[in-house]
């Protein structure tokens, strides 16, 4: 029996894992390793139950910490599991420290690696995610690309073997979550907002949370927008707010909440006017659901969203953020749904099966 060991550790990976894990378990044995990179209840355990993912076989409980320390702990623990379980393939998602730790551990033990969401590039090496995704792509045996752009990025780096366009599993996940969110989530009533009368925001990148000026600039922009801003606060962002002694009461236009379960976030996304975020995943989710997005970064790996006009890069400049929100609010331009039709998990499973038939 084929054994695939899947590694997840951060919120976006839980979401991407859900549709593919179900398909894997219909065909072979899956061992699910949760590194514990995100350890908040609303950003880990809740996602497994909501999305129907089986409980992890291992939870490494690594938690937060400096990049080297966090990655090193994961690498050591994952290696032990690989030596014990001897999987036929290691499956990694995205671009987190969990991704690179799993890839390095597998490559040193000569275990084939499959990378979901391969070929993405922001070309900003200041982002640890960029380093993680580049290194992972260069040690992977199967590279599952969401778009042709991702394939071309890999070609530029000389990576052409084992590269496939599959579409994006996040499309699968969000399409599956839509009816659940519409039926089960009461988040709009809970926080007292009405559909199409608010913006949705998330902020968690170190470039914004670890820079007091940038964080204050973003909050100031949110406070001056025409509609209220619903802002679930990431644990890293909350810690920065506390360290900088920022008073949330000084921003009455912002509705601050704790981190929210995935179905609540999907519901908020469905009924929002526009998204403001520095998250790669939420940029893409906004595009999938035809919601304009102002990205609080200077670069993005999801360049298709910018090229089609659904996404504008504003950085942390409060004046630019306000102006770009005004420009994009109500946008309804060309939309090619370039990340696939919700069949990425099926496409990936077919490729993996073919790999093992060789």
TrEMBL record:
GO molecular function terms listed in the Swiss-Prot or TrEMBL record: UDP-N-acetylglucosamine 2-epimerase activity
Keyword Signal: no
Keyword presence, Isomerase: yes
SUPFAM superfamilies, A to Z: UDP-Glycosyltransferase/glycogen phosphorylase
Keywords: Isomerase
Residues in UDP-N-acetylglucosamine 2-epimerase domain copies: 27-353
InterPro entries: UDP_GlcNAc_Epimerase_2_dom, WecB-like
Enzyme nomenclature, EC number: 5.1.3.14
Top class in the EC scheme: isomerase
NCBIfam families (alphabetical): wecB
Name of the protein in its database record: UDP-N-acetylglucosamine 2-epimerase (Non-hydrolyzing)
Source species of the chain: Methanospirillum purgamenti
């Amino acid at each position: 029996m084929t054994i695939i060991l899947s590694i997840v550790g951060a919120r976006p990976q839980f979401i991407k894992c859900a549709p593919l894990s179900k398909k894997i378990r219909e065909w072979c044995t899956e061992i699910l390793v949760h590194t514990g990179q995100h350890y908040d209840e609303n950003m880990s355990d809740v996602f497994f139950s909501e999305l129907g993912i089986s409980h992890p076989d291992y939870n490494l409980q690594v938690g937060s910490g400096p990049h080297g320390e966090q990655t090193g702990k994961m690498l050591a623990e994952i290696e032990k599991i690989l030596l014990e379980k001897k999987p036929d393939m290691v499956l990694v998602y995205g671009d987190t420290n969990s991704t690179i730790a799993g890839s390095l551990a597998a490559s040193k033990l000569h275990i084939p690696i499959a990378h979901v969401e391969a070929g993405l590039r922001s070309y900003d090496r200041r982002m640890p995610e960029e380093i993680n995704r580049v290194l992972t792509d260069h040690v992977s045996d199967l590279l599952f690309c969401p778009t042709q752009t991702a394939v071309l990025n890999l070609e530029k780096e000389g990576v052409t073997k084992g590269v496939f366009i599959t579409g994006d599993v996040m499309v699968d996940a969000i399409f599956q979550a839509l009816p659940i969110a519409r039926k089960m989530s009461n988040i709009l009533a809970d926080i007292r907002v009405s559909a199409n009368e608010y913006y949705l925001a998330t902020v968690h990148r170190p470039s914004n949370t670890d820079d007091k000026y940038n964080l204050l600039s973003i909050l100031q922009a949110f406070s001056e927008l025409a509609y209220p801003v619903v802002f679930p606060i990431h644990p890293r962002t909350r810690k920065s707010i506390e360290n900088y002694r920022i008073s949330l009461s000084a921003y009455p236009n912002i509705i601050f909440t704790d981190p929210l379960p995935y179905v609540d976030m999907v519901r908020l996304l469905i009924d929002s006017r526009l998204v403001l975020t520095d998250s790669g995943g939420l940029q893409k989710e906004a595009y999938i659901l035809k919601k304009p997005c102002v990205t609080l970064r200077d670069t993005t790996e999801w360049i298709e969203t910018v090229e089609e006009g659904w996404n504008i890069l504003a950085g942390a400049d409060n004046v630019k953020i306000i102006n770009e929100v005004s420009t994009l609010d109500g946008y309804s331009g060309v939309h090619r749904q370039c990340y696939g039709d919700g069949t990425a998990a099926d496409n990936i499973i077919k490729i993996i099966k073919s790999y093992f038939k060789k």
